[in-house]
């Protein structure tokens, strides 16, 4: 997703990467194959399919399939094709983004972004409608909302998402491409390119296929009315933190710096006057909340396509987890992998985790908020696996006819008996209603603070046997 080797093709890279080892992760996180034995062609998106528990959406960038992926009870993987397109085949072209209308369950509308095939380049956003089952495209021709003339083949951005607080469709597109933003798009408030845009898909203004939200920064002049934020180079992957509405964006840098931005309405993120926090801020520019330099990851190797940030995902699935509200991100070329914690004062603390097994292209979540990552060149979807990343909606599993578990007792604020860890060094702690109250580890068996007296259940993360019983008295 960088510009340095834009014409290197996947077959060459496959040879270079096929020997990449699967590394155990520090921080207790492993990359676990989500669909063992099943691969995807250049996956660039993973997300939950709304209204269909257990079904996830995968975008295949160059094969240009929107896949609905699920597992049968015997563990076999089913791929249904919601939609297939004809797209450009350069490294950064293809099917790039998808968002489902907040009312998809009733109106079956969904939105894709892609670069069509052909020697003239465009960046497009299109509305499509699924059939009555919701599982197949209706075949009705798509309604093109946005079609941008694009001077170069790279820097196409392409992510799409509906704002969790406002219901508007957000779409980010890169500066057009080549090096040094030769057309000056990033700082040109009248250009589509190098921007985050925001539109209302539920009504139309005169001459447009959408409505301009009245509070867009340039809704009444001063720039393109669709613009929400500007000064972006190649905003490849970004995600909303739904509880706060914060928009975390990874903007791919050029020669020196990769950056994470918190995107706010009307914000100028500096490109090409600034790269990361380097360059001269004219006073209008918002600095990134986190950067890493190419020099800093040199030791890890740049990989065949050079460094490029893969904007990440915020973990919100379990309020008791140490990772709650933190952000996972990766680097494409070096396979670097980090967690960022941002405190209430805005101070960011980065933890470097062990590298990803292959170049990641994107992060996503399932309906329960588990975090997944797309392994690009091996087509493997990974679950970020750790007891700390299990959703609190996990319930203790009970095999039919299983024997009662063991019983343990402890005092409030005390420790769990070491014998409870004989089957597993990590145990989930559940209330009797099945809600998960925390995680206990053999090497730190302290009970969570503030746990009330009463009866609780203990079970290893993957166990389906009877839980053990813990009485706190
Ligand atoms: Ca381009």
Bound molecules: calcium ion
As a percent range, the share of strand residues is 35-45%
Q: What is the total tally of β strands?
A: 31
Which consecutive residue ranges, at least 5 long each, have pLDDT under 50? 1-25
CATH superfamily of the largest domain: TolB, C-terminal domain
Largest sheet: 5 strands, mixed
Helix content: under 10%
Rounded to an integer in angstroms, the radius of gyration calculated over CA atoms is: 23 Å
Can you tell me the CATH architecture of the largest domain? 6 Propeller
Reported by name, the CATH topology of the largest domain is Neuraminidase
Q: What order do the strands of the largest sheet run in, or round the barrel if closed? A: 27-31-30-28-29
Structure description:
- The protein is mainly β.
- The chain has helices spanning 10-17, 104-107, and strands spanning 30-33, 43-48, 56-60, 65-71, 77-84, 95-100, 109-114, 122-129, 143-149, 160-162, 169-173, 195-199, 227-230, 235-241, 246-251, 257-262, 274-275, 278-279, 290-293, 309-314, 327-331, 337-342, 348-353, 360-365, 371-375, 381-385, 407-410, 426-430, 436-441, 454-459, 468-472.
- The protein is globular and about 70 Å long.
- It is built from two helices and 31 strands.
- A five-stranded mixed beta sheet has the order 27-31-30-28-29, with no helix packed on it.
- The protein folds into two domains: 10-389, 6 Propeller (Neuraminidase); 407-472.
- A hairpin with a 5-residue loop joins strand 24 and strand 25 (371-375).
- The structure holds calcium ion.
- Calcium ion binds next to loops.
């Amino acid at each position: 997703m960088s510009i340095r080797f834009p014409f290197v093709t996947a077959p060459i890279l496959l040879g270079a990467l096929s020997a990449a080892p699967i590394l155990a992760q520090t921080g207790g996180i492993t990359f676990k194959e989500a669909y063992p034995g099943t691969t995807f062609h250049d996956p660039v998106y993973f997300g939950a399919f709304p209204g269909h528990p257990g079904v996830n959406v995968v975008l295949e960038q160059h094969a240009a399939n929107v896949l609905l992926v699920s597992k049968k009870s015997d563990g076999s993987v089913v791929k249904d094709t919601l939609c297939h397109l004809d797209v450009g085949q350069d490294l950064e072209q293809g099917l790039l983004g998808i968002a489902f209308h907040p009312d998809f369950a009733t109106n079956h509308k969904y939105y894709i972004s892609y670069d069509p095939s052909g020697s003239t380049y465009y960046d497009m956003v299109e509305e499509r409608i699924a059939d009555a089952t919701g599982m197949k495209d209706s075949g009705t021709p798509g309604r093109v909302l946005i079609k941008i003339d694009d001077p170069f083949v790279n820097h196409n951005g392409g992510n799409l998402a509906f704002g969790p607080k406002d219901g508007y469709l957000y779409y980010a597109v890169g500066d057009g491409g080549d090096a040094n933003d030769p057309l000056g798009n990033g700082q040109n408030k009248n250009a589509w390119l190098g921007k985050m845009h925001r539109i209302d898909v539920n009504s139309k203004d005169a001459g447009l296929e959408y409505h301009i939200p009245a509070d867009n920064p340039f809704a009444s002049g001063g720039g393109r009315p669709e613009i929400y934020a500007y000064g972006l180079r190649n905003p490849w992957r970004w995600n909303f933190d739904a509880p706060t509405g914060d928009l975390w964006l990874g903007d791919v840098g050029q020669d020196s710096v990769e950056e994470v931005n918190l995107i706010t309405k009307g914000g100028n993120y500096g490109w090409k006057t600034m790269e990361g926090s380097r360059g001269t801020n004219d006073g209008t520019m918002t600095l990134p909340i986190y950067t890493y330099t190419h020099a800093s990851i040199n030791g890890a190797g740049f990989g065949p396509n050079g460094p490029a940030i893969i904007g990440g995902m915020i973990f919100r699935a379990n309020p008791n987890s140490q990772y709650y509200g933190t952000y996972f991100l990766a680097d494409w070329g070096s396979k670097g992998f980090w967690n960022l914690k941002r405190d209430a004062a805005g101070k960011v603390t980065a933890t470097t985790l062990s590298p990803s097994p292959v170049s990641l292209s994107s992060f996503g979540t399932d309906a329960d908020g588990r975090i997944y990552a797309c392994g690009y060149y091996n087509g493997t979807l990974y679950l970020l696996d750790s007891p700390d990343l299990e959703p609190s909606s996990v319930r203790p599993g009970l095999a039919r006819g299983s024997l009662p578990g063991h019983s343990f007792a402890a005092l409030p604020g005390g420790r769990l008996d070491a014998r409870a860890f004989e089957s597993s060094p990590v145990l989930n702690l559940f209330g009797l209603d099945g809600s998960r109250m925390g995680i206990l580890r053999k090497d730190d068996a302290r009970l969570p603070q503030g746990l009330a007296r009463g009866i609780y259940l203990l079970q290893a993360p993957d166990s389906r046997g009877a839980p053990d019983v813990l009485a706190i008295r």
